[in-house]
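Page 37, continued from 36.
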């Protein structure tokens, strides 16, 4: 048993493993906690983005059990330590290929290791979406970012824009008030999708203003020079164009589920989320379960991810028991 938080230590693999969990956000780590306590000795492959999206989240105020709130990375560390208390092993590696159709399942890691597993829980999360403009791609890392928490610090006393009208956009805007001089939330409609409390906070913050009905046509600037210098915006009602002078653009327009490796094997919905059966986490493949943002187009909360992680571990445990009886 590897009961250590040091994932640089070599981990020995069973052949086959009982249960491999792919992903180490709240879904994967909660699945590991439950499966570990059930004695399944789960193996977590934590991936390149260990901890998932919570690692980019400042204050989490709505995870039950933390009355004063908690920083995202600390919440992950707590979940991780709790999972490691039992028989979980965590590997700092990335899955590069999966064959989930047969038995046992086969997972190839970036290190070259091939792991065979009786059951698999997919908890690979979701990735930030960009607008898809060539100018945006050109300036990524030079003033264009999808992570205000990671990059906000670099915009001290500068004017920046946040794109989007959901909770992420307003959370980013509010976070950026600690660094930037002004934040313009650029939204394509005239009303916000974000929750009421976030709207109230953003609308009442003197550093935050809104560019309503505004589409970003182009990100202006030169990566070889000063980076982003402004955004060319079009008013959706009048068609009028204008330049918003900013030195940073934070894109916060949602996320896409991380399903590249399994999209030809596992049933997905129209938006790419894994489809699970009824109230369970069972996918279309026997012995393959899904948890967290990769299967949740609706709620996308840390607590719902943890909840589905719990369900996936219980579903996997029951399925494994049925196979061996
Ligand atoms: P979201 O709720 O889907 O909002 C995405 C926003 O981006 C929408 O306002 C959408 O505009 C806009 N958008 C999408 N594609 C666009 C495009 N191509 N160009 C311009 N704008 C575009 O995503 P989210 O804000 O990431 O939130 C996801 C979930 O996580 C939600 O359930 C949210 O409540 C939750 N969340 C909660 C918190 C919190 O409680 N602190 C923080 C972050 C996220 P339209 O409105 O016009 O569709």
């Amino acid at each position: 048993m590897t009961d250590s938080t040091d994932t640089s230590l070599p981990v020995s693999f069973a052949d086959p493993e009982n249960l491999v969990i792919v992903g180490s956000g709240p879904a994967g780590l909660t699945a590991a906690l439950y499966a570990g306590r059930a004695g399944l000795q789960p193996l977590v492959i934590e991936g390149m983005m260990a901890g998932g999206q919570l690692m980019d989240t400042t204050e989490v105020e709505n995870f039950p059990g933390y009355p004063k709130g908690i920083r995202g990375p600390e919440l992950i560390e707590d979940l991780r330590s709790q999972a490691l208390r039992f028989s979980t092993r965590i590997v700092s590696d990335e899955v590069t290929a999966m064959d989930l159709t047969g038995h046992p399942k086969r997972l190839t890691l970036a290190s070259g290791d091939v792991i065979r597993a009786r059951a698999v829980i997919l908890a690979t999360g979701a990735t930030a979406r960009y607008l898809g403009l060539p100018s945006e791609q050109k300036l990524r890392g030079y003033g264009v970012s999808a992570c205000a928490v990671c990059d906000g610090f670099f915009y001290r006393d500068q004017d920046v824009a946040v794109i989007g009208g959901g909770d992420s956009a307003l959370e980013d805007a509010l976070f950026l008030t600690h660094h930037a001089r002004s934040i313009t939330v650029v939204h394509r409609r005239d009303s916000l999708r974000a929750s009421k409390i976030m709207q109230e906070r953003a609308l009442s913050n003197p550093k935050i203003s809104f560019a309503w009905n505004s589409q970003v046509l182009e990100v202006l600037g030169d990566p070889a020079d000063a980076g982003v210098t402004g955004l060319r915006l079009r008013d959706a009602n009048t068609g009028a164009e204008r330049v918003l002078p900013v030195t940073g653009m934070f894109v916060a327009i949602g996320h896409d589920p991380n399903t590249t490796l399994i999209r030809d094997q596992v049933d997905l919905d129209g938006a790419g989320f894994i489809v699970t059966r009824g109230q369970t986490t069972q996918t279309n493949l026997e012995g393959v379960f899904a948890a967290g943002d990769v299967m949740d187009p609706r709620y996308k909360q840390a607590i719902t991810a943890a909840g589905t992680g719990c369900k996936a571990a219980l579903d996997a445990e029951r399925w494994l028991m049925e196979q061996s009886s």
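Residues 62, 131, 163-169, 171, 188-189, 193, 195, 253-254, 300 surround NAP (CB under 6 Å). Flag for discussion at group meeting. Residues 100 and 209 are 48 Å apart (CA to CA).
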